[in-house]
UniProtKB/TrEMBL annotation, chain A:
Signal peptide: none annotated. Transmembrane segments: none annotated. It comes from the Bacteria. One of its GO terms (molecular function) is metal ion binding. Keywords: Iron, Iron-sulfur, Metal-binding. This is 4Fe-4S ferredoxin-type domain-containing protein. SUPFAM superfamilies: alpha-helical ferredoxin (SSF46548). It comes from candidate division TA06 bacterium DG_26. Residues 221-253, 298-329 form the 4Fe-4S ferredoxin-type domain. Pfam families: Fer4_22.
UniProtKB/TrEMBL annotation, chain B:
Its cofactor is [2Fe-2S] cluster. SUPFAM superfamilies: Ferredoxin reductase-like, C-terminal NADP-linked domain, Riboflavin synthase domain-like. Pfam families: DHODB_Fe-S_bind, FAD_binding_6, NAD_binding_1. InterPro entries: Cbr1-like_FAD-bd_dom, Cyt_c3_hydrogenase_gsu, Dihydroorotate_DH_ele_sf, Dihydroorotate_DH_Fe-S-bd, FAD-bd_FR_type, FNR_nucleotide-bd, OxRdtase_FAD/NAD-bd, PyrK_electron_transfer. GO terms for biological process: pyrimidine nucleotide biosynthetic process. This is Heterodisulfide reductase subunit F. It comes from candidate division TA06 bacterium DG_26.
Length: 337, 276
């Protein structure tokens, strides 16, 4: 059972951490949008936001990251490994859908071989989630088994209640932070429960998702794919803004005889993703690439790791330039189950 | 060190195979790594040309040749162009071994059909060499190998040896139009030649590798002749980047070719969605 303590506000958490000279990342207003950026002054953090433009995925899996430096001449080859030490960091005020994305991705990056770049950052980071007080019609977290106030992925979840703010502490890292913040006064479980009921009402878009993996298993070649997904233009905006999409490329960027090997975001919706050197492409047309995105998120990942690879944050819907609404595809599938 | 860190291989010898295929024999630079390195036939590695990138390729040598590995590479893209033009003394990056392997232990006492097309031979050569080293463990080895043309056959030196080996039945073929005046093999696609051979499934196991279309038709031919799908093995070489089950590129359905494969039985493949 999670521990409930009273907390003054999300701002007070930032203020305290900055005073302790800790590294803090928080939502910062950038024009019309919010982004997760390091903050050194409490005023820079803006928690009156709906959703950040990108999740904080980029902090754990950067859009581009050097994984090896090399310098090779005929006589000498030098390889230089990047530093895998990351500073202790506190991400404060991320939405529950973005926090949950981390616990979903943990399964992949820590399965079998461990991706040290991801793991080292995860280990050195404490996540302070902030329950939603607003949702739009593209939010569908409750259909993904989450909620505007789910603690999944947050070491501490801050929830606005009728009486103020509560800190819901779920992990050891959360406990450590709570003592750092000197949170002592117990919160009311009833207050928390009521906040949860209100949070649940924020979500207006809901569909039954439990039958989706089964439908996907037996309808790989259904006509729905071509008819609904053929308008995808393969721009990859959905995958890049997605907090759970994690597919990447590894490329060498040479400068003369030296250079760097880099891990870059990639996307299954791009034409070149699976193309063989011979020119043969198993996913020869666009709807097959979009189908992979759906199959991976709602079927394969469920089989392998027991969870949807989606938190219902709705970013993919908001950014799609051709209005290919993934929730609509899921609703269509759900109606056929 | 991270899971993406390569170890270094030094090219000892380059054997030209065809106009666009070369075999590299390489030794590990790091003595301790060489000492500990072991792999099983069918596993692959990520071979890297620094400045060009990495490429997933089957290890073509037998695990018994300690401290060195062989890889046959067809020049197709950027990385393979660099690797095939390597000279003795050049340094290549290596990560591996990755993936699963052919269960040769389970095949003891059986008649083995090795069926290869083109450069696909390199992916089953390690198994073939291992089997021939312990040939008393196996009843018989049939090697059916085809290429587009006589000039595109790889491992010609070894084919000549197999012709003299009483434990090996070698059937070589080239695609129609690919033969030459002195060609002593067959003319026809691998599955058609296999069809003519009327392979008997009793006590037999097949190991198949070649281009995707050849694999598909060869499996169908074997099944038609009564082979159980469980007794037909192949190795798939989807596009890969990490080799570690992370980058999300090589999946067929829920299977990662790099982790759950590259070796699959035809029974497993029959369960896959048509996405390879």
């Amino acid at each position: 059972m999670a521990k409930l303590l009273k907390v003054e506000s999300p701002e007070s958490v930032v203020e305290k951490l900055i005073s302790l000279e800790k590294r803090v990342i928080a939502p910062v207003r950038d024009g019309r949008l919010h982004r997760f950026l390091p903050v050194t002054r409490m005023e820079d953090a803006d928690f009156g936001y709906f959703q950040a433009e990108g999740s904080m995925k980029g902090y754990f899996l950067p859009a581009t990251e050097g994984i090896l430096k090399f310098s090779c001449t005929t006589n000498e080859q030098k390889l230089e490994e990047p530093d895998l030490e990351f500073p202790e960091t506190f991400i404060v005020g991320c939405r529950p859908c973005d926090a949950a994305a981390l616990s979903i991705q943990d399964k992949l990056f820590e399965w079998d071989y461990v991706d040290e770049f991801y793991k080292a950052r995860r280990d050195s980071t404490t996540i302070v989630g902030l329950a939603c007080t607003y949702a739009d019609n593209n939010c569908f977290c409750t259909s993904m088994g989450l909620a505007p106030d789910s603690p999944d992925g947050s070491d501490i979840l801050i929830v606005k209640t009728e009486e103020g703010f509560l800190a819901e502490i779920s992990t050891k890292k959360g406990e450590k932070l709570a003592s750092l913040l000197e949170l002592k006064e117990k919160g009311s479980a009833e207050d928390r429960r009521r906040a949860g009921v209100n949070a649940g009402k924020l979500i207006t878009r809901e569909f039954r998702s439990e039958g989706i993996p089964g439908w996907l298993k037996s309808n790989f070649e259904h006509e729905l794919w071509d008819s609904m997904c053929t308008k995808c233009i393969g721009c990859a905006a959905c995958t890049f803004t997605c907090p759970t999409c994690h597919c990447f490329d590894i490329v060498d960027e040479p400068v003369g005889t030296s250079g760097e090997r880099r891990k870059n975001w990639d996307a299954c919706t791009l034409r070149t993703f699976t193309i063989h050197a011979s020119g043969y492409n198993p996913r020869s047309v666009q709807y097959k690439r979009y189908r992979q995105r759906i199959e991976h998120k709602f079927n394969y990942y469920v089989d392998r790791f027991g969870r949807f690879l989606c938190t219902g944050c709705g970013r993919c819907i908001r950014v799609c330039p051709v209005s290919l609404d993934m929730a609509e595809v899921l609703e269509e599938i759900s109606s056929r189950v | 060190m991270s899971v993406y860190s390569p170890t270094l291989l030094k090219v000892k010898e380059v054997l030209p195979e065809t106009h666009d295929i070369a075999t590299l024999i390489m030794g590990f630079q790091d003595g301790a790594f060489a000492e500990e390195f072991s792999f099983k036939p069918g596993q692959f590695g990520l071979f890297g040309a620094f400045g060009e990138g990495e490429c997933a390729l089957a290890i073509a040598s037998s695990p018994s040749s300690k401290g060195q590995i062989t890889c046959s590479i067809k020049k197709v893209g950027k990385v393979t162009s660099s690797l095939t033009s390597a000279n003795a003394g050049d340094i290549i990056g290596f990560r591996g071994p990755y993936g699963n392997w052919f269960p040769l232990e389970k095949m003891k006492g059986k008649k083995l059909f090795f069926i290869a097309g083109g450069i696909g031979f390199s992916a089953i050569r390690s198994s073939l060499l291992s089997v021939l080293e312990k040939k008393d463990n196996y009843k018989k080895v049939v090697l059916l190998y085809g290429a587009r043309s006589v000039g595109e056959l790889v491992y010609k030196r070894e084919l000549a040896d197999y012709e003299k080996n009483s434990k090996v039945d070698l059937i070589k073929t080239v695609d129609p139009g690919g033969d030459e005046k002195d060609w002593d093999g067959k003319v026809g696609f691998v599955p058609s030649v296999l069809e003519e051979m009327k392979p008997k499934p009793e006590g037999s196991v097949a190991i198949v590798c070649g281009p995707p279309v050849m694999i598909k038709i060869t499996i169908a031919t074997l099944v038609k002749h009564g082979f159980k799908r469980e007794d037909v093995y192949t190795t798939l070489e989807n596009r890969m980047k990490c080799g570690l089950g992370k980058c999300g590129r090589c999946n067929i359905g829920k299977a990662y070719v790099c982790k759950d494969g590259p070796v699959f039985t035809a029974a497993q493949i029959a369960e896959f969605p048509p996405d390879y």
